[in-house]
């Protein structure tokens, strides 16, 4: 049986009123708080790294956090925490399909 496709939620660093969300490092802070959720995040050899399920990124010049829907199955309260953060701060959230790891916003382009 094929695995059900998962979705990702793009939490954008802009409010529904069109204002830029502050502080400027909000996406890194939120992803840092959620770093304990994911493979290899616990145990004697664990290293501090962003979770596969909650990660900061840039889309153009807009800071965003990508929330993977699979976190809901692993830790529903953590998933709800991230979405409630967006709701409480009136941030724009877009639900979409998985964004490939090699998308242009994650890598510097050679010029």
Report on the architecture of this protein.
The structure is a single chain. This protein starts with 6 loop residues before the first strand and ends in a 14-residue tail after the last strand. Strand 2 and strand 3 form a beta hairpin. Strands 2-3-1-4 form a 4-stranded antiparallel sheet, covered by helices on one side. The chain has a single domain (7-39, 47-99), classed as Alpha-Beta Plaits (2-Layer Sandwich), CATH 3.30.70.2340. The chain is globular, with a radius of gyration of 14 Å. It has helices at residues 26-33, 71-74, 76-88; strands at 7-15, 54-59, 62-68, 91-97. Mean pLDDT is 83; it is low at 104-111. It has 3 helices and 4 strands. By secondary structure, it is α+β, with helices and mostly antiparallel strands.
Main sheet strand line-up: 2-3-1-4
Strand content: 25-35%
CATH class value: Alpha Beta
Number of domains: 1
Largest sheet: 4 strands, antiparallel
Morphology: globular
Computed over alpha carbons, the radius of gyration is 14 Å
Instruction: Find the count of extended strands (DSSP E, 2+ residues).
Output: 4
Low-confidence segments = 104-111
Indicate the CATH topology: Alpha-Beta Plaits
Structural class: alpha+beta
- N- and C-termini, Cα separation: 44 Å
What's the pLDDT, averaged over the residues? 83
Strand and helix order: EHEEHHE
Count of DSSP H/I helices: 3
The CATH architecture can be named as: 2-Layer Sandwich
